[in-house]
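User: Quick one: structure for sequence A, then sequence B.

Assistant: Sequence A:
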Amino acid sequence: MASKKLMNSVAGCADDALAGLVACNPNLQLLQGYRVVLRSDLDSLKGQVALLSGGGSGHEPAHAGFIGKGMLTGVIAGAVFTAPAVGSILAAIRTVAQVGTAGILLIVKNYTGDRLNFGLAREQARAEGIPVEMVVIGDDCAFTTVRKAGRRGLCGTVLIHKVAGALAEAGAGLKEITERVSVVAKAMGTLGVSLSFCSVPGSSKPTFNLAADEVELGLGIHGEAGVRRIKMATADQIVTLMLDHMTNSSSVSHVSVQSGSSVVLMVNNLGGLSVLELGIVADAAVRTLEGRGVKVARALVGTFMSSLEMPGLSLTLLLVDEPLLKLIDAETTASAWPNTPKVFVTGRKRTRAAPSRPSEAPDFTTEGTGPCCWGLLSKRMALVLERVCTTLLDLEEYLNALDRVSGDGDCGTTHSRAARAIQEQLREGPPPASPAKMLSELSLLLLEKMGGSSGALYGLFLTAAAQPLKTSTDLPAWSAAMDAGLEAMKKYGKAAPGDRTMLDSLWAAGQELQALRHPNANLFHILTKAVESAEAAAQATKDMTAGAGRASYISSMKLDQPDPGAVAAAAILRAILEVLQNLESL
């Protein structure tokens, strides 16, 4: 059963949370018209490297809590567990650049949607002449073998914010900061554990289920299940298991911590763990590390990067030397960074002798704290888009249910958000009659309004597909458009056919559409075969091992349903075909 949420509306919860943060912190400002928070003294950063980060909401205090002198310049937020829109990221970059900063570094967690959207914004900004670099942080220690999608970005990202911020404040250049934080990122790791699930606002179902005597090990920060389920145990036993996993040299994602190493330890509340339990875990972590001869240089305990109300925690270890410790210790005004003593935890005397018993008892009496549209006319395009929107809205709950198997259960919500945005645009006026222009405008709309990796992938597909249609709209041109869109998705999304993604459906359809290049091609015969192939490919994904996207982090044994993105893509193609067939019969 999903938990109750104290909010005004599901749609406005991310904006309301940022408004509350800014209202209570005079050092922050919102960028008008965007879900962007910036330092209020932005104009004072002329000549200094600026740092931008961000991601989906639901991870508070990350990321906006780490804005301030000595840390981040600004943050771009998405909806809950959804990557920020490209337009918002680009607006933040332009705003920061216009005050005369000496370059901008984007600090991005390794998730497909974040990587795509920040990457797209970076490319556009660089095309405008803005010096922008990007580092992608993957500190997850959960997986013992190499994954195509790479290691997920977790709480260790906050330490990168701190190191980069200290370097920027000291006057380091963009190249130096980028290189140094890239080295630091390779010397840390994070592992999470949870006692139960979290629930996404507006969803009626939890992100995963656990038995009363089970604990989820190796989970991410988006409510997805972990890599292993273990029986409930004591805090000492669970911490020992976590540290063993993180430092196991046979794992490709381990942290090379050994006797004599110095580390910064982060004990991070995933949102719903009590402060009492967090203290117990922190004690167990310090004792276990010191028992192995590891020196704990600093211990940061609190909520740094949460997963809504998830009752769990993550441990982060960062190998440090004295120069790196100075950067960790450097002053910052960021509200969520703890005021930690700048001394080693290990080696400090932690107890004081009890008072000796007085010889005489004292007297106390005196003592007093959219995909491809085939219409040649604007009216036909509008009919196609309306049917696609209706189809996606009808599938919302089904797609969410499929997505709960492998992700955060919002695939249907994401597609419905896109459908409503398209419907709103259609109410404002008909789509362009030019297929290339229509696809380009649809791409921009989805990139801004749909959100998540789906929005970025559809946006990439439509942008690329529009290019061949600028010079021709004959049948071979539509086949070329499909090919161009698929290649763009493969290039930036890092997925390939067979990876259990939306690409599987589209790729199957694209192979059939090659027949459009032949002379005297039968349009509706080919389209019908393409849609049938897409639907078959979508159903076939339930037997595939995920090789890309968030589902790739989940054991294939748990993926007994088709991929929701593939199902959605096939449904879109079916809707297009049916409208065109109806129009042909008129």
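Sequence B:
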Amino acid sequence: MAAAEESLRRRKAENAGAEPGSPPGRGPGHEPTGCNARLRAGTFWLTRIVLLRALAFVYFVAFLVAFHQNKQLIGDRGLLPCRTYLKSVQQYFRGPVGWDAVSYAPTLLWLLDWSHMDSNLDALALLGLGVSSFVLLTGCANMALMATLWVLYMSLVNVGQIWYSFGWESQLLETGFLGIFLCPLWSLSRLPTGTPPSQIVLWGFRWLIFRIMLGAGLIKIRGDQCWRDLTCMDFHYETQPVPNPVAYFLHQSPWWVHRFETLSNHFLELVVPFFLFLGRRMCTLHGALQILFQAVLIISGNLSFLNWLTMVPSVACFDDATLAFLFPSGPGGLKDRVLKLQEEAARGLRPPPRYGCMVRRAVHVALGVLVAWLSVPVVVNLLSPTQVMNTSFNPLRIVNTYGAFGSITKERTEVILQGTASLNASTPDAVWEDYEFKCKPGDPGRRPCLISPYHYRLDWLMWFAAFQTYEHHEWILHLAGKLLANDATALSLLALNPFENRAPPRWVRGEHYRYKFSRPGGRHAAAGKWWVRRRLGPYFPPVSLPDLKDYFQSREWPYPELP
């Protein structure tokens, strides 16, 4: 009897110390944890981990592309050597390397020895690969690491010339710049309790995705008539820069499917961005819709890492309660630790802010002011009827304009490079053999490639070259000269060299072709052809290596050496 009374008194004492509304036996030391824990809305500890890993993944792909292709494109013997470009910048500002030259083209290469530019480019890419791999695998990052990634990639973009002239390069730099301020200064903890994610930085990411999507939608409405007629998707899958196998089948969809696709595109780019400002649930819906939209675009074409990158700022739309399903439950896990942080904050048990926290807040406020100031010309451009897309208003590319496919090509044309060993290129019996690129259409029987998020920069530029004449793209004659010498570096950018293990061709020419998808069930498809092509005429006339000697010398390009 005495034992029962003592037990009753003990339970009453425990319940007296419980918080109001808590069930019996659930006092302050008995909070639910582990698999039964449900995170509260409004914190972004897990959001930061997911966002940084997603950003690191895109950085990894970008540096991988750079490592594999920079030597061939901008290296010592590249198609557009960056050493020549930096010299031209230096000459333009009339003197040694000074602030004007550095601010015009900010890059670490100004500080390095130009006599071994291939090694410099490899070093930048390899360092970027190493740092991005660490962040991707561990989920740990600090300002120093993220700033390193940003400076390294900016150093490549600003000497990449036409090969790095696309909107996703500036978009990665802007996203990466914001990523620097999402992290603590030095700590590499995945959950640095002293530095919670800043709301200013999170809104910086949301402001970025808002401008990306709205800019893309407005440039379409103001651009090609087919976006207003809802007919653009009748052509897009066939004429996009680098189609994939799925695009072949999507192109065959009924007309009403294409109308629905175009309307959906307008809704997602012109209406959904405003969901960001309508509270937590609508913001979450915005993030989910935009990520789903980008996933569809990834499936339907090879658009480099653009769509993967566009997903990154959308992650800032989700709080810890939304992203909790991505993390395992259990005592001591990230979810459990975040739950404890939330409970401490709810009880007011967090320590008072230290001096370092105050400095950090001041830095974030300064960042917000900077982004707002740099956004002024961007917003003016968005509202302008003469809107331009994918433009930077500052050399560091911190805040930029964006847009995609403001105009849609209705016919697909391709430049096919051919070589011949014949002594006379003009004789009817000359046998011309095609070079095949890694991914762009060539042989009508070759299946379209599937490479996203990887990116073949030369293939992409060949798509643009087909719209204009070779005089607008002088690098294509540089490529022809290298093919005439069987240059191994340049040929590594191609999938097929018809003169492999043979003497190099005596002549190389460019032919212009019109390409269309074959019709499923038709004669060409039955013969195993994905494409039907028709010759339009010459793109550039047959050239030999001696013909190009003066052309190379006038541009300070290394003259190819015959093997």
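Confidence is low (pLDDT under 50) at residues 8-35. The longest helix spans residues 45-74.

User: Thanks, that's what I needed.
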